[in-house]
Amino acid sequence: MSEPIKKPLSVLQKAVHKQVSIRLKNDHEYKGKMMNIDQYMNVILTNAEEYNNNSLSANYGKLVIRGNNVLFIKIESDL
Amino acid sequence: MSEPIKKPLSVLQKAVHKQVSIRLKNDHEYKGKMMNIDQYMNVILTNAEEYNNNSLSANYGKLVIRGNNVLFIKIESDL
Amino acid sequence: MSEPIKKPLSVLQKAVHKQVSIRLKNDHEYKGKMMNIDQYMNVILTNAEEYNNNSLSANYGKLVIRGNNVLFIKIESDL
Amino acid sequence: MSEPIKKPLSVLQKAVHKQVSIRLKNDHEYKGKMMNIDQYMNVILTNAEEYNNNSLSANYGKLVIRGNNVLFIKIESDL
Amino acid sequence: MSEPIKKPLSVLQKAVHKQVSIRLKNDHEYKGKMMNIDQYMNVILTNAEEYNNNSLSANYGKLVIRGNNVLFIKIESDL
Amino acid sequence: MSEPIKKPLSVLQKAVHKQVSIRLKNDHEYKGKMMNIDQYMNVILTNAEEYNNNSLSANYGKLVIRGNNVLFIKIESDL
Amino acid sequence: MSEPIKKPLSVLQKAVHKQVSIRLKNDHEYKGKMMNIDQYMNVILTNAEEYNNNSLSANYGKLVIRGNNVLFIKIESDL
Q: Nearest CA of chain C to the CA of B9: how many Å?
């Protein structure tokens, strides 16, 4: 069971360099290109856009999001 | 006691590829096909629908939900 | 001291297949038959009923509740 | 230093079968006979009474309280 | 560095049997004689008094406070 | 997979001595020169400025921010 | 990488016996002489002053602050 049980993190690893949308616990959403992600769901995002209630609220060059704030990660292009 | 004590995670593993409904701590609900789940209850959901107070609020292709946000997982089709 | 110090989880293990009522931190209550439970208090509940302020708010077939949300578990039939 | 540093949990162990009053983080209080307790402060309580703002709000046969919700435990009869 | 880096817990150990005042995260304050404390800051307090906004709200014989609720511990008599 | 899976923390390590902007969970933002960072995202910031709703609210010489409060770190100059 | 990655805690260790200002998650601030600090950021403070919205609200002789409540520590005199 140890191999399939790791899958969600593997799916995220395979999504590196793809466009993602990350919803945080505070309900803000960050969209950008996911440059990398680790096992805590710490994420590097480039060309990041911050959305608040679906409206763009800020632009960032390069963000490192701390994984414990993540609610979910939406992978824009299917694997 | 070590074998039966692991059962809830085994039940979730057996529900892979089934339709589930996931309630988060923020009271949002996500319905979709559970493609996989790990021991932290990190979940991959495809054709995900977001419900807010029982009304559909968004559609997502593929979501990875971080397990620590999960309140409960309802397995739509019994095992 | 190691043997008696594990008792609360043993009591829960012995209550498997009994009727329980589970209060969560968000004050919702879930009643049903406890099919299994692990050391994190992750619980499988069947024929689950959700109560909100003591009134029935929903019915579920099979639920897996994530243990970290549990406030307490009431065992309906004494051991 | 390792022996005395474990004392609070030892005191709780010695209070097994005594009458206790357990205040939770949500300010509810549970009084009853403490049948057992483990190192996480998971507690089994029998003949449990729930108090809300010092007034009795419910009676329970046997409760298992998850330790991480505990604010403090008052031991009614001194050791 | 390992020896001095443990000092705050050692200072608390040396304050056993002294009068302390413990502020919790919920802003309540508990004053009493600290009978013991462990590495999680679980504390045994005797002749405990509860203060709410600096006014006495309750008296307790013997309390065991769960350490994760502690904001700070004030040692009344200097070491 | 162990090497690429560590990347977000490596990116932060490489940003030492760069100008960063750190958003905390309480929505305050701290800008300054990041003198160092560890694996918990504990950060040393010099010439730190505190921003509240995008307006400067305080100046600090040298701050050590505890990592568990971090929402994200924006690296001002790209790597 | 293991040596520089520990720096924030080393900087705090070197600041022992200096004047510090500690902001907690509940927005209270504590100023005093930092007598010691451990790896959890548990801190011993002497001649401690409590500030609320920048106004002095209380004086304490000796405080031990539990590290998990710390937002940041400002070192008053640069290293």
A: 8
List the single residue in G1, G70, G79 with the smallest CB-CB distance to F66. G70
Q: Whole-model pTM?
A: 0.90
**pLDDT surpasses 60 at B63:** yes
Mean pLDDT over C37-44 rounds to 96
SS3 for B59?
strand
Distances in Å between the Cα of G67 and the Cα atoms of A24, F27, G60, G70 are 25, 20, 18, 6
In a domain, residue B2? The reply is no
Comparing alpha-carbon positions, the chain C residue that sits nearest to D70 is C71
Asked if residues E61 and D75 have their Cβ atoms less than 8 Å apart, the reply is yes
The structural domain count of chain C equals 1
Report pLDDT for C30: 98
Range of the domain at E45: 4-75
What distance in Å separates residue A2's CA from the closest CA in chain F?
15
Residue B55 resides in a domain: yes
Contact A63, A44 (CB under 8 A): yes
What beta strand segments (E) does A1-79 contain?
A: 19-24, 29-37, 43-52, 55-65, 70-75
The single residue listed with the structure tokens 């290293």 is G79
Do residue D8 and residue E64 have CB atoms under 8 angstroms apart?
Answer: yes
Q: How confident is the model at residue F4 (pLDDT cuts 50, 70, 90)?
A: very low
| ipTM of the complex, rounded to two decimals | 0.90
Distances (CA, A) of C70 to B22, C41, C42, C55: 16, 7, 9, 19
pLDDT of residue C77: 67
Strands (E), F1-79: 19-24, 29-37, 43-52, 55-65, 70-75
**CATH number of residue C13's parent domain:** 2.30.30.100
